Amino acid sequence: MANPGYGKRSAPDQRPRKARDFTHLPPREAAIAAYLDRLPDGTDISVKTLAKHLPYGQCALRTALNRLQAAGHLRRGREHVRGTGSAHWITRTWFSRTARDDIWWATFTRGDVPEPHTSAPQHPTRSRAFILLAALGRTAPALSLSEADCAALAPDAARWFDRGATEADLLHALTAGLPPVVHRPAALVRSRLTTKLPPEPAPRAALRVLECGTCGAPGRPEALPGGTCGECRGESVRHRTAPEPTEVRAHAARVRAAAVRTPARSHT
Question: What CATH number should be reported for the domain whose range is 8-109?
Fold first, then answer.
């Protein structure tokens, strides 16, 4: 296992494991991918450590991991540690049994792909929105709802939570300023859920940064197709060179000379 917080991280929303998951890969890469797939999160999957447990040298493993990256099964990068109150980033290696294209990895980098659930519930559970609506009558008896009403209104209430509202925000919007008599509580709740819906939240800052699997240079996902930067793919990169000090001084002298020759405008 790697140090706490490091090591393998499974990508979310993967298909169930099947015998033919990696048959599209060459035999060596398929064997390594199947091995990585069965390792728990937090396992050290560096080239040096893998070479101690697999019948391949470090050079062969590095090549194989780069091919897994190009095939969409692997990405390297850094991830912001949530809840720490600091700008601390941790090195990550994400593995996906399901091959992903560059667009999916870019979406994942922005944090827009849901994280996997650690354990599936054993019994059906009520949603957060359903529970709030079912308890609404305790706060405002005039808004007591039936089970069918709660089930029908839960999707509208869930949109509030999706937009960052809290239970207190939603309760206040539904119960404040009620009329003396409520004849149709479900209709009133639906109207308020719709008309008072808060706006969409501002776009979130990126939670993850991908890095080139060859040189380790960070970059935007669209600049790292297949997980590799343009320079490592052999594309020519133009580098801007700073002007020589003599050129800077000469340019400044020309500007000053032009200012002296220009007559001042008279004001009337």
Answer: 1.10.10
